[in-house]
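Input record (one chain):
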Amino acid sequence: MRRALQIIGVIALSLLGGLWFLRWITPPTHAEVSGAYTRSYLGVTEDLTLHPDGTFQQIITYTDGRKVTASGQWSLINQAVGLSPYNEVYDVDFSNGKTEIAIKNPPDGVGSIFFEADGKRLMRECVPVFLKQRQSAAGGNPDTK
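The corresponding structure, as predicted from the sequence alone:
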């Protein structure tokens, strides 16, 4: 009887672990990824809004207050968000055995770019991460999640 309970316990824990793991690797939905994101690095702020209709708006604000915008289409493929076209503001240099990030001013217009998405962040290589924003209860400015 004791052995049977141990086996049932192991099976139950295995099932719970498996369910947790499946949730962890399940790709986010279109609705989970839609929303406003922001990132800031070296004084440059980049705001990105993924609209539910598959369009996006990108606003880059430089330290002098100058803004550069882009808009286009976005798509979700498994855990990747594709944006097209896009303004790339970060220059990543992997030479000399270390990673260095510099600001492109003006940004480079690229045909398309992909970010890994989990519903809370957009991530790509060594550049700063976009954090998803949430609307405040009063419907005012978004707050960082």
